[in-house]
């Protein structure tokens, strides 16, 4: 019989390394998938997943069991991804105008991004809130009610966000056809 997440969390909070290891092993793929859907780049998703796992032991102290462990974990990953996206934006603004080196670096990044799947690129154009919604609804196969509970928003807001995602992707596809 498989031990529940809640039991593993309680044991890990009590300092049992084996329980913590089992918890990380059980949920690493989920952490990585959500990281990838939020960031759109494999290397960054791997880095973020490793960062989340590295800080998970200390973060478990804040888990009070008021929600499912996976709900709490999703929120942890989404917040970490949003922080990384903010840092990425701040870094990009700070490095603008650094001459030929910066121009070449941006060109290399653009070439690498062109090789990614169309959807991953398209999702990069969405706000972090829309990406988080898409990651849960499509990536984690949640219904709108479940995603709303995970994100702490109304089911109607999830439906609106998904509608906005469809509109944005349709517009992008039409613009690409014209080009």
Automatic annotation (TrEMBL):
Domain RNA polymerase sigma-70 region: 23-89
Domain RNA polymerase sigma factor 70 region 4 type: 117-169
The keyword Phosphoprotein appears for this protein: no
Single GO term (MF): DNA binding
GO BP, sorted A to Z: DNA-templated transcription initiation
Keywords: DNA-binding, Sigma factor, Transcription, Transcription regulation
Entries under InterPro entries matching the protein: RNA_pol_sigma-70-like, RNA_pol_sigma-70_dom, RNA_pol_sigma70_r2, RNA_pol_sigma70_r4_t2, RNA_pol_sigma_r2, RNA_pol_sigma_r3/r4-like, WH-like_DNA-bd_sf
Family (UniProt): Belongs to the sigma-70 factor family. ECF subfamily.
Pfam families cross-referenced by the UniProt entry: Sigma70_r2 (PF04542), Sigma70_r4_2 (PF08281)
Species this chain originates from: Algicella marina
Lineage start: Bacteria, Pseudomonadati, Pseudomonadota, Alphaproteobacteria, Rhodobacterales
Protein origin, superkingdom: Bacteria
Name of this protein: Sigma-70 family RNA polymerase sigma factor
